[in-house]
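User: For documentation purposes, I need each entry recorded in a consistent format: the amino acid sequence on its own, followed directly by the corresponding structure tokens. There are two entries in this batch. Please keep commentary to a minimum and don't merge the entries.

Assistant: Recorded as requested. Entry 1:
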Amino acid sequence: MKFSMLPVLLAAFIPLISLVIAVILDRERRKKSERPPQAEKLLRPPGHSLSLRLDKTLDTVLDDVFTSCGLSAIAGLCVVTLDMLFAAHAPFSWLAVCVLVLALFVIASALSATKAFRGFNEAQNIRLGVRGEQAVAEALNEVADCGFRAFHDLPGGDDWNIDHVAVGTRGVFLLETKARRRRASRNRQPAHEVSYDGEALQFPTGKETQPVEQAKRNTAWLANYLERKTGEPVRVEPLIVLPGWFVRFPEKGSFLVKVMNANYLVRFLAGQDEIIPPAQVRRIITALDEKCRDVEF
């Protein structure tokens, strides 16, 4: 490679460098100059926490891509420099240093690219979770005629939330959404089917107990929270909703945590008896509204 290639190589990366600078400056400008048009907070939409996590993940992926490209550009300059040193019959020590620097930038670029790829895969999984919560939210909209009020993404702590809470005279229901992709079965179980025995979810690719334990734990927290806010005990029923899956029960029984798909959820909620007085329902709704109304316009 001749020295005349150096300006050509630099010019090739000017658009990338300009884009990086423009993105950074635009981020800072928006933080300093833009304000929401209204001060009132909004209720959390379905999948709010996952959407924020998705945005953050995609930003990180973009940063890693920029970093990888920038390091690759520097590695390219190292190649040009190495070619010049060879042509000038430079001392071996200079060549060794240049090769070492080149190797370091190539490795760093590869690591950044690998990190970006992993972040991209993570973003795909997060997006699946968002779509699952949106599917359950649509099902909850269908039972609004039965007097249910739905709340989404109820914050329980700094790093966890409850996907949905449905409240009405027919009861208070906590819903945890679990979106799973269908893959080839490992145990001859149909690819669209999940088996539930009251303790674990048996998918075609393996068994999961964490969703059931999570639902129990979150239900206890929510019941305690509502009792503290309303001054009266509140019974909360936990549900796990699996959009797109057929749920099979190998053993009949009344399980503490019920599991169903989004289509059956509508019939299940609509078929419940009225057990909570309207006045208590209003107090519960007020408590949940206060907890979930924290989204800036």
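Entry 2:
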Amino acid sequence: MRLYHSPMGISLACRLALAAADVDHELVIVNSRTGETKQEPFLSINPLGEVPVLECDGTILGQTVAILTFISDRTGGVWTRASGLDRAKALSIAVIAAVEVQSAWKMINRPSRYVDSEAGCSEVVGHARARLDAAYGEVDRQLGLQGDSTELGILEYYLCVFALWKVMAPAGKGLSSTPRLDAVKERVMRVTKLRQVIDEDIASYTALTS
């Protein structure tokens, strides 16, 4: 397998899933912050210009949730043993995270994609931050409906990245508390090999942005 990844991007969730399952893979770093994902040769791999991308057995897969479910199905993760109802509940949370949380972060990080003026950018960021706070709150609320899980799975790896963004990004300061989401992050980081992946990603991100 080959994973195309931008440090501290949402593709980190796929890194965590591969590491958790001890899957041998090649990691290809693509710096989304400098626009590498929007240029060749990456656009030939994914015309949408987004990571993650997973190459496996001659097939190219995109979209984080799809890649995560594939990794779990291939490696026999907890996802494969969950009931249909439990999978649907997990997917519901994942979709909220993708559609609401991730989209709000994109608006905050690149407001100029949506408006031209400086005043307009400030307005977009303010609106996106309110949306982000509400979205994080809904993810946290739905986690409370999930019930306790003794195993880590693809939802936890996915949500861990959103929890890390909330802590590390300046725009995350002052957002409402999300104790259940924070607990997911702590559970993931208590696993030594997963903590190592996160620490490596933070170091790579720091090196690329310094």
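Summary note for entry 2:
Strands lie at 2-5, 26-29, 53-56, 59-62.
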